[in-house]
Amino acid sequence: MAHCSISTIKSCFASQLLTSTTTSTQSKVAFRPVATAKLNSSSSSSAATTPISLIRNEPVFAAPAPIIHPLLKEDMGKDSYEEAIAALGKLLSENGELGPVAAARIDEITAELKTVDGSVSSSESIERLKTGFIHFKKEKYEQNPALYGELAKGQSPKFMVFACSDSRVCPSHVLDFQPGEAFVVRNIANMVPAYDKTKYSGVGAAIEYGVLHLKVQEIVVIGHSACGGIKGLMSFPFDGTTSTDFIEDWVKICLPAKAKINAQHGETPFGDKCVLCEKAVNVSLGNLLSYPFVREGLVNKTLALKGGYYDFIKGSFELWGLEFGLSPSLSV
Fold it and tell me: Are 159 and 181 in contact (CB under 8 A)?
């Protein structure tokens, strides 16, 4: 229907109408330095720190900032739409013998025209995105020209954050991060897999980029309340059968946490065990130690690892750190 001009709409419609109604070991033993890691206690507050500098003297992979302008479509194709509707109405009045089936088909085509054209019935989702960007541009972008001018030169975030994809726990909102302050990776149940060049290369690439190129100073892994990914981890049987294409294989990353909780809290109700597992981000912190560049950063004290837990039901946040060090070398 879209390829027909208004002058030939009658014949085009008749063709579409007919089509629609007719088809359906050595002697000397050497003891090398031993790496150790331990978790310190949870802390709800921290000492005052110097304001974070968002930009380094040498920007990393700087790229020009794209200029985005919202496109308004209120007047696009209005005349052609109205003419098409009028022609369809006339066709129906001149051919009363087409009957109820034809009338229903005309209504269907009319609805399609309204939706495709967009000048009468606008999509709520598109409208939400448009108004959201307009609000951001007016209230934030245009109010902070210095910040966004600096960000156009490059980024130098202090934090790298692993958080869940859950729509209720956006770390930028929860921790009030400003643009350029945090390099964020979000996935199901905020998990960090162990170093693997092939199986989880996407996560590995993010960690490598954050640590080696952006030079982040802190990696924070944040769990949260009512996590669907953790509920899946605790409920999947992992007996060789699967009911999902990707989820079960992904949440296996934290099977050690599930095993520990089941061993120590076997008689605890399922819901309570899920809560315990939500706080088990230490598996991910341990997995981070399998990345050589992360270990190097910890040894050189240019990098720190922290775990966190956000309870959006109670409105609370817990934070703890992982201390890493090497014991003195010993030769025998």
Answer: yes
In degrees to the nearest 10, what's the CA dihedral of 254, 255, 257, 258? 130
| Rg from Cα positions in the chain | 29
Q: Could you tell me if residue 236 is left (phi over 0), alpha (psi between -120 and 50 degrees) or otherwise beta?
A: beta
How far apart CA 249 and CA 310 sit, in angstroms, is 25
Mean pLDDT of the 121-148 span: 92
Q: Please say whether the beta carbons of 157 and 54 come within 8 A.
A: yes
CA torsion sign for 238, 242, 243, 247 is positive
Please state, in angstroms and rounded to a whole number, the distance separating the CA atoms of residues 88 and 212. 64
Pairing state between β 304-311 and 182-187 = unpaired
pLDDT in tens, 219-229: 999 999 999 99
Phi, psi of 122, rounded to the nearest 5 degrees: -90, 145
Query: In the chain, what is the straight-line distance between the N-terminal and C-terminal CA atoms, in Å?
Result: 87
- Residue 4 CA to its chain's centroid (Å): 43
What's the pLDDT tens digit per position in 139-150? 999 999 999 999
The number of beta carbons lying within 10 Å of the beta carbon of residue 13 is 21
- 81 falls in which pLDDT band (50, 70, 90)? low
Answer for the pair 225, 278: CB distance below 8 angstroms, yes or no.
yes
